[in-house]
Amino acid sequence: MMSSATFDAEGDFADTFMEEVREEVGRCMWGTAPVDLRVHLEGMQRSSRAEALFAGNGRYSLNGTVEFVDPARNNAVLGRYPIQVTVEAQGRTASLMGDRQMMVSEAFGRAVCEEAFGRNPREAGGHNATRG
Fold first, then answer.
1. pTM score, two decimals?
2. Which of 7, 41, 53, 58 has the highest Cβ tally under 10 A?
3. Largest CA distance in the chain
């Protein structure tokens, strides 16, 4: 489940965000009991494509709160984590042509894993949208 404050995002942001966060968290959280994830996004800042063109890079930030809840115990909160990420697209091409929503969403999911479980769900490499 995701909720958000009002901010300027592209129309498919919620779908992209949830897909990327599910993928990242699915790599670091496992077990036998079902646990639900609630996300409330409080803010997003991003460089415009014009800024990226002139500056040569783009910065995208996202902050929110993540809760792990137990559906078997009336959605009791098992853990609550504030998450804030900033991603920099390196270079004009990445800033202008890259999927900015995917980059910041993947970084957010990765930060959830690091905060809640103390581990990065992936090894660093070119196969990721972010450098972490």
1. 0.78
2. 58
3. 52
